[in-house]
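Hi everyone,

Forwarding the result from last night's run.
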Amino acid sequence: MPRLQEATLLRVETFSDRMLDVVDALPGKRVSRRVLDQISACGTSVGANIFEADEAMSAADFCKTLGIVNKELSESRYWIRLIGRRGWLRAARLADLEQECQELRRIFGAMISRSRKKLAGAD
């Protein structure tokens, strides 16, 4: 049973696409393959895990998977900031993407909090 609105899923898909756009823009910047792989992995993991959360078998599973989403968003934010600090891409180009990380983390954090309160009330 789907738990998330289609608009939320689309927003996360767009985030993952934007992370891959950053990866595509970096090869000419002498960035190691390992860094590119890390950026790709966390950026796309956000999308994969949100789709997994959407089909969670229980409220506890939903919370656990959203927690993973938030961890991947935190890692994505780290890489976005590193790319800007290193000057691999202009910080201005990355600002909206970092802001989207923060907004998505707040949204999913609130979902986790509400779901945990419901779970605690079910006891």
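The longest helix spans residues 91-122.

Cheers,
N.
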